[in-house]
Specification:
This protein is mainly beta and 289 residues long. It is built from one helix and 25 strands. It has a single domain, classed as Neuraminidase, CATH 2.120.10. The protein is 3% helix and 51% strand. A five-stranded antiparallel sheet has the order 1-22-21-20-19. A four-stranded antiparallel sheet has the order 2-25-24-23, with no helix packed on it. A four-stranded antiparallel sheet has the order 3-4-5-6, with no helix packed on it.
Length: 289
């Protein structure tokens, strides 16, 4: 598929089959490309918006493969909302920074086998939690009460931060590989990379519900404010899950562009997507017209 055709398809939303029946029509947004950076990043993985600073943080894994010892070439970048880069290497000397989230003045960063706390006002790492018995940390999420969960994707488990320590919250017996995580009041949403599902888990009863199937290499999760969610497939798709549970593919760039852990900024209807192996970051308008 040539690039012009791919960009045309990127602006169109098409419905897909779920459970063998065609989904009924309901309001579905479109993704309209606004800008994409030059390939100046180093395997950008996750985007997080800081409303206080009005900037977006981008984690960069660096050039070191995960099957070799880390060498500290990972970093976090700071971007403006117009696509310009404020600081390419804001926080440096990280190993393989992936998922990030913000609580108050702290940026929490999953960094291979450690979880890093970055003091945002001071522009520096304030604490590094070295963890035993983890394989490769991926996404991390902070809930409305400050509850923090971290996915050890390759270790097939989810960790929880309580009373200053990290403990195993859930182990995945089916090895669906929990990649993305979104934390709410009494539940977490998990993007399962190998089982290609979005699941909801009650944090009190541990009851699980499959919200969406067939979503590829599920990666990032973001609510859009109406009870619906955006979910990325790392291989190049973006899905919309409606409040009624209907799924739609909003973007399919498989074979050309990767779609890693996204961010959504509601008041601007702006979707920020790191393109990982493309070494770029792109922004889309979530258009409901």
């Amino acid at each position: 598929m040539n690039r012009s055709l791919s960009l045309l398809l990127s602006s169109l939303a098409y419905s897909f089959f779920l459970g063998g029946s065609l989904l009924d029509a309901e309001p579905v947004p479109k993704l309209v490309l606004l800008w994409e950076t030059e390939p100046i990043f180093s395997y950008p993985e996750c985007a997080v918006y800081d409303p206080e600073q009005e900037v977006v943080y981008i984690s960069n894994i660096g050039e070191t493969p995960k099957d070799v010892p880390p060498n500290g070439d990972g970093f976090v970048s700071v971007m403006n909302l117009d696509g310009s880069v404020k600081t390419l290497k804001w926080i440096q000397d990280l190993n393989d920074p992936k998922g990030m989230d913000i609580w108050k003045d702290t940026l929490w960063v999953n960094d291979r086998d450690a979880i890093v706390e970055v003091d945002i006002p001071k522009d520096q790492v304030q604490q590094r939690h070295e963890l035993d018995d983890v394989v490769f940390l991926n996404d991390i999420g902070v809930g409305p009460r400050g509850q923090i969960y971290s996915n050890d994707a390759d270790g097939h488990k989810v960790l929880a931060f309580k009373n200053g320590t990290w403990d195993v919250f859930w182990e995945d017996p089916d090895e669906g590989r929990p990649n993305g995580v979104w934390v709410e009041e009494d539940r977490i949403l998990l993007a399962m990379n190998w089982s290609h599902q979005l699941i909801s888990m009650d944090t009190k009863t541990m009851e699980q519900t499959v919200l969406l199937d067939n979503i590829g290499a599920a990666d990032g999760i973001e609510p859009v404010g109406n009870g619906g969610y955006l979910i990325t497939d790392y291989l190049g798709q973006v899905f919309y899950l409606s409040p009624s549970g209907k799924g739609t593919v909003l973007l399919d760039s498989r074979g050309e562009q990767h779609t890693a852990d996204l961010e959504y900024i509601p008041d601007q209807q702006l979707v920020i997507i790191p393109r990982h192996k493309n070494h770029t970051v792109a922004a889309y308008r979530l258009n409901w017209d």
